[in-house]
Each structure stands twice: as structure tokens, then as C-alpha cells.
């Protein structure tokens, strides 16, 4: 296992980058703590795979350094980094059996035969392929082959890090939850540093100790699932995480008040904000009302999804979502919304600020 340090790291596919927009990966400084499980989360093209490939050694960055436990490995080949990487699409040896595929990285390191047998049997059980260990990989389904790839990554217990690049893309949906659970158990058992790339928030939030959210080549927030949900540091985090995502309201911020669609909303402190100012509120913290103060709103429809109701509204021409418990009654004639104070976030030019105008 290793502590992975990124120093002033950035990458451009342009051989002569001149401005920040030329960089697919904007400058990043971060320590990946030894033994933690991380998820790189973001939409396609945000720089997740570029960052993972720099860490693995498949790509040399345009600037900055990568260190494993303080050792500079920026230009070191993948083989010298002692990592295991699982890619989006399966990479297996078709002429080998499942057992031989799983044993291959261990045999390459001259491991004792009895220990190889023990580890292969264990991983075979984990990926639910124990009964197929002596079957040739040729002819297996794509999801079965990807399970072999995952198993080959799991079979080594001495790696500095395990890197996963959207490994469950081709896996049958029924198997995804089970494999995520097994990866989590593997992490708990062996304490490997794990970095898992995905665009699926469910995968990220259920797998990782810390989620690294990326947008436009930039890391916009690193935090626990709870931190990302309760205090999104960037409007993209609020939008991307949650179903439905966070609502954003254009607002005029005046000290301890926000003015939204002609109505005043009390804030939790005195704010000094410049630029484009917005208030972000997750659907869980929006209440629908038929009388009293509030922001004018019109209910478009109500969707009962079993665990709760999604109330689709329109506020000043913009779509807004609110959540209500399954058995909750929607007030007759409801024409306004209010916010639970603990769920209100204030943003200036997309970045969350705290009372006083400081970046949060």
C-alpha cells in the first residue's frame, strides 16, 4: 500500500498549452491517504480517466509530480509502481482457463503454488466463478470476463494501489451491487488504497470513503458522501449528486436575506457576495404551502415513486423539485414554497460561500 501524492499536477493533450482551457486536467494538489477507498466521480470527459492513467503510469503529465510514499514515480512505467488496474472493458487471456487467468499475476511474481491455489480459490468465490475455474475464458460472456479482470486485480494482496476505471460498465445489473459489496469487503479485509472511476453516483457513494467530484477537468470537491450531500462546494456537485439533484435559484443576496422571485428568504448569517449569486436547496428541504409567506410556485404534477413523492413545480419560469413523504398530503391550493433553514446553501459564481463571503 502507498500514500499517493499529486503535486501541481496538470495535463494537456495540446503539446503547447498556453491557457487554462488548454488543459484536460487542471492543476491539482492532493494526498491520497494510504489505505482509503476513493471514487473519482463526474460526467464523461471531465478528466477522471486522464487522472487515473497518470497515477497508473499509462500517461506522463504535462506538469507536476506523482509520488508513492514520497518516491517520485512521475515517469516510472506502470510495472515499477506495483499497482493493479482494471479497465472498463475486460482484458483476459482467452486461451487460459479462469483459474490460469487469476493465477497469472501471482505466477509472474514466483509465488508459492499452495499460496496461489489459496488466493485463486478465495477470489473465485468472491466473483462467483468457483464452479468455472477450469473453464476456458473463450466463450464466456462479457460480464463473466470482466469478473475475471476484477478477480485478477483482487488476487494480489501486496499492491500499492488498486485502480478501477468504470469496471462495472459491462456487468449485468443484477451483479453490480454484489460486486460493489465484494470490493468494499476486499478493502476492509486488506486495506488497499483503492481509486475507483465512475460516472454513476450510486457506485461512488456506496463504494468510497471519500468521493472526488470532477467537472470540466477540475476537482470541485473531495468529501464523504454526507459532506457532498449536505454542503456541496460547487453547484455541479449539488446538481450531479442526489436524485433529483439540488435546486438552484437565482437570488439577490442582501446581508441576511435572499430575494428570490420577488420574495424574501432568511439566511443563516450575513453574506457579502459578488458575481452571479444563487441559493441552492435540495428537494428534501423544500416545503409546499398554501398560505403564509413563501416563494410563489405552481405545482405541475406529483409523482409517487413508492418511498416518497416528487413534487414537480415551476418557480419564476424555472423547474423545481420537492420531496414529500409517501403518506404526506399536498395542501389544497398550494401556491408557494419555503425552505428548511438547515438546507440552504449560498453560491457566488458557482462556488459555495459561508456567511461573511468566504469560500466555504
From TrEMBL:
InterPro entries: AAA+_ATPase, ABC_transporter-like_ATP-bd, ABC_transpr_FbpC, ABC_transpr_MalK/UgpC-like, Mo/tungstate-bd_C_term_dom, NA-bd_OB-fold, P-loop_NTPase, Transp-assoc_OB_typ2
Keyword annotations from UniProtKB, A to Z: ATP-binding, Cell membrane, Hydrolase, Membrane, Nucleotide-binding, Plasmid, Transport
EC number: 3.6.3.-
GO CC term, one of those recorded: ATP-binding cassette (ABC) transporter complex, substrate-binding subunit-containing
Family under the similarity heading: Belongs to the ABC transporter superfamily.
Listed PANTHER family: ABC TRANSPORTER ATP-BINDING PROTEIN (PTHR43875:SF14), MALTODEXTRIN IMPORT ATP-BINDING PROTEIN MSMX (PTHR43875)
Protein name (database record): Trehalose import ATP-binding protein SugC
Amino acid at each position: 500500500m502507498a500514500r499517493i501524492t499529486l503535486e501541481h499536477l496538470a495535463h494537456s493533450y495540446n503539446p503547447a498549452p498556453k491557457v487554462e482551457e488548454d488543459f484536460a486536467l487542471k492543476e491539482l494538489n492532493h494526498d491520497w491517504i494510504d489505505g482509503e477507498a476513493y471514487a473519482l466521480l463526474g460526467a464523461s470527459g471531465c478528466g477522471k480517466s486522464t487522472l487515473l492513467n497518470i497515477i497508473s503510469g499509462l500517461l506522463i503529465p504535462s506538469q507536476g509530480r506523482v509520488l508513492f510514499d514520497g518516491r517520485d514515480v512521475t515517469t516510472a512505467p506502470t510495472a515499477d509502481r506495483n499497482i493493479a488496474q482494471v479497465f472498463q472493458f475486460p482484458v483476459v487471456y482467452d486461451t487460459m482457463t479462469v483459474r490460469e487467468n487469476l493465477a497469472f499475476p501471482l505466477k509472474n511474481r514466483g509465488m508459492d503454488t499452495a499460496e496461489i491455489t489459496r488466493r485463486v480459490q478465495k477470489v473465485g468465490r468472491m466473483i462467483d466463478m468457483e464452479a468455472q475455474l477450469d473453464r476456458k475464458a473463450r466463450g464466456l460472456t462479457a460480464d463473466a470476463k470482466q469478473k475475471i479482470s476484477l478477480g485478477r486485480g483482487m488476487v494480489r494482496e501486496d499492491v500499492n494501489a488498486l485502480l478501477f476505471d468504470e469496471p462495472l460498465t459491462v456487468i449485468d445489473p443484477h451483479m453490480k451491487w454484489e460486486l460493489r459489496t465484494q470490493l468494499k469487503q476486499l478493502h476492509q479485509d486488506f486495506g488497499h488504497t483503492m481509486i475507483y472511476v465512475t460516472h454513476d453516483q450510486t457506485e461512488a457513494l456506496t463504494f468510497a470513503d471519500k468521493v472526488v467530484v470532477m467537472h470540466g477537468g477540475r476537482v470541485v470537491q473531495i468529501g464523504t458522501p454526507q459532506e457532498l450531500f449536505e454542503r456541496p462546494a460547487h453547484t455541479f456537485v449539488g446538481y450531479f449528486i442526489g436524485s433529483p439533484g439540488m435546486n438552484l435559484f437565482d437570488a439577490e443576496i442582501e446581508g441576511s436575506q435572499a430575494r428570490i422571485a420577488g420574495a424574501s428568504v432568511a439566511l443563516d448569517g450575513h453574506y457579502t457576495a459578488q458575481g452571479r449569486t444563487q441559493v441552492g436547496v435540495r428537494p428534501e428541504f423544500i416545503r409546499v404551502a398554501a398560505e403564509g409567506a413563501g416563494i410563489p410556485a405552481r405545482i405541475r404534477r406529483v409523482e409517487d415513486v413508492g418511498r416518497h413523492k416528487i413534487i414537480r413545480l415551476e418557480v419564476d419560469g424555472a423547474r423545481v423539485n420537492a420531496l414529500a413523504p409517501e403518506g404526506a398530503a399536498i395542501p389544497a391550493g398550494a401556491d408557494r414554497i419555503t425552505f428548511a433553514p438547515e438546507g440552504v446553501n449560498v453560491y457566488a459564481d458557482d462556488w459555495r460561500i459561508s456567511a461573511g463571503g468566504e469560500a466555504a
